[in-house]
């Protein structure tokens, strides 16, 4: 028993220091090294189970924890990381490369290669994901009987997610999908796939609120970034896109009942050699969907085939089965501001809105787009709004 006398009292600072030290260590993140669970950095052994076991251990931890992936190549088959029973936040720090099996039949029939479901407070820091998709792309190109392909990284129904400094190479299908999430930050991402790889979208966002994509470099065969139904409060900033199909909202309006897209800012983007720049696309079918409060600002177009596009008759692949109705998706309050550069085709601005639901409050401000040595042209239908500052080409609204 300690009797508090003035003599003992002067020891209190030391006691409280020791206590704080103890507290600090017990709160410090616990680290789970995947190699301790049997993962082999040899580029050959299947490390799926060791990764899932490291996840299970981190998930059961009573403290915030870190899963550490040291340098080396780890082959992983399809892996789902479930978070509904996790007790704390988990950081996955990757110094190595995760490789999808070379034989695309192993994972290519599943929707995803790696997916996170119902996680909260997960951070993925660093690392490379190598989808080894080239074999599947050529199978598809030769019209063979191929699996649909797995998207590399899917994040579903999750909150408070950070992905920082991750590289994704040669996905079989989409590189990253964010669906049903709140508060997601993706930064310093590098995505790379061949310009003729099919459906290898860089980052696809849908049914999600508060998604930020910053400082990323995307080269791929489809959209660099796409936003599907239910995307709201999205900020996309400081992006290099090319090759690829640009940054798009859509395609939207396939379904009759569909959540809208609102408050999207796309800022400081450099497109080089892409098929499109900034684009909104909807199917020509009845829908209660909408797009409102969108800002495309500070955009450079370097030889972009279709720099600015609103297409409410979107139907890319099947000309015989296009819906050919009026799109129900209502598009309003879309601003194109400070957009300059070179178009690779004569029509730099193409605005084709729905005859039943014309686009409203479209703003063009400070636009300068050229085609070769000539002024570029516009092609427009069913759009209303206003011009501000110097806008060339104009004649749309
Ligand atoms: C729009 O989205 C941004 C970026 O996520 C967010 O900071 C801002 O608060 C949102 N604005 C409104 C009006 O919700």
The CATH architecture term of the largest domain is 3 Solenoid
- Principal-axis shape equals elongated
For the CA atoms, what is the radius of gyration? 25 Å
Under CATH, the topology of the largest domain can be stated as Pectate Lyase C-like
What is the highest CATH level, the class of the largest domain?
Answer: Mainly Beta
Measured as a percent range, the helix fraction is 10-25%
In summary, what is this structure?
This protein is mainly β and 397 residues long.
Offer a few descriptive terms:
mainly beta, binds 2-acetamido-2-deoxy-beta-D-glucopyranose, 11-stranded parallel sheet, 397 residues, single chain, Pectate Lyase C-like
Can you walk me through this structure?
With 397 residues, the protein is mostly beta strands. The protein has two domains: 138 residues, Pectate Lyase C-like, CATH 2.160.20.10; 175 residues, Pectate Lyase C-like, CATH 2.160.20.10. The chain has four helices and 31 strands. The strands form two sheets. It has a 20-stranded mixed β-sheet that branches. The chain starts with 5 loop residues before the first helix and ends in a 5-residue tail after the last strand. The mean pLDDT is 94. 2-acetamido-2-deoxy-beta-D-glucopyranose binds next to strand 20. Belongs to the glycosyl hydrolase 28 family.
């Amino acid at each position: 028993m300690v009797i508090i006398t003035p003599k003992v009292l002067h020891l209190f600072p030391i006691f409280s220091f020791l206590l704080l030290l103890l507290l600090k260590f017990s709160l410090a993140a616990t680290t789970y090294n995947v190699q301790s669970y049997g993962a082999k950095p040899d580029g050959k052994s299947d490390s799926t189970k060791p990764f899932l076991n490291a996840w299970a251990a981190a998930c059961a931890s009573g403290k915030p924890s870190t899963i550490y992936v040291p340098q080396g190549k780890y082959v992983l088959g399809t892996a789902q990381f479930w978070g509904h029973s996790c007790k704390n936040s988990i950081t996955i720090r990757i110094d190595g490369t995760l490789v999808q099996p070379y034989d695309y039949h192993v994972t290519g029939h599943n929707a995803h290669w790696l997916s996170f479901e119902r996680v909260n407070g997960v951070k993925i820091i660093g690392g490379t994901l190598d989808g080894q998709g080239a074999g599947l792309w050529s199978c598809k190109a030769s019209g063979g009987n191929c699996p649909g392909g797995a998207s590399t990284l899917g994040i579903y129904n999750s909150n408070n997610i950070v992905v920082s400094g991750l590289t994704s190479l040669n996905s079989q299908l989409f590189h990253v999908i964010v669906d049903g999430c709140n508060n997601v930050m993706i930064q310093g991402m590098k995505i790379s796939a061949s310009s003729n790889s099919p459906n290898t979208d860089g980052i696809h966002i849908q049914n999600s609120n508060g998604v930020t994509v910053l400082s990323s470099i995307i080269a791929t065969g489809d959209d660099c970034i796409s936003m599907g139904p239910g995307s709201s409060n999205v900020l996309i900033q400081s992006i290099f896109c090319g090759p690829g199909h640009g940054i798009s909202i859509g395609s939207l309006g396939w379904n009759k009942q569909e959540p809208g897209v609102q408050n999207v800012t796309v800022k400081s983007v450099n497109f080089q050699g892409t098929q499109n720049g900034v684009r909104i696309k909807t199917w020509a079918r009845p829908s209660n969907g909408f797009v409102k409060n969108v800002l495309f600002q500070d955009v450079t177009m370097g030889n972009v085939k279709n720099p600015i596009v609103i297409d409410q008759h979107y139907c890319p692949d099947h000309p015989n089965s296009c819906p050919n109705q009026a799109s129900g998706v209502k598009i309003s309050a879309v601003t194109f501001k400070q957009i300059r550069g070179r178009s690779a085709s004569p029509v730099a601005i193409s605005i084709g809105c729905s005859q039943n639901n014309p686009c409203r409050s479209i703003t063009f401000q400070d636009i300068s787009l050229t085609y070769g040595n000539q002024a570029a042209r516009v092609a427009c239908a069913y759009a209303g709004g206003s011009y501000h500052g110097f806008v060339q080409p104009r004649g749309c609204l």
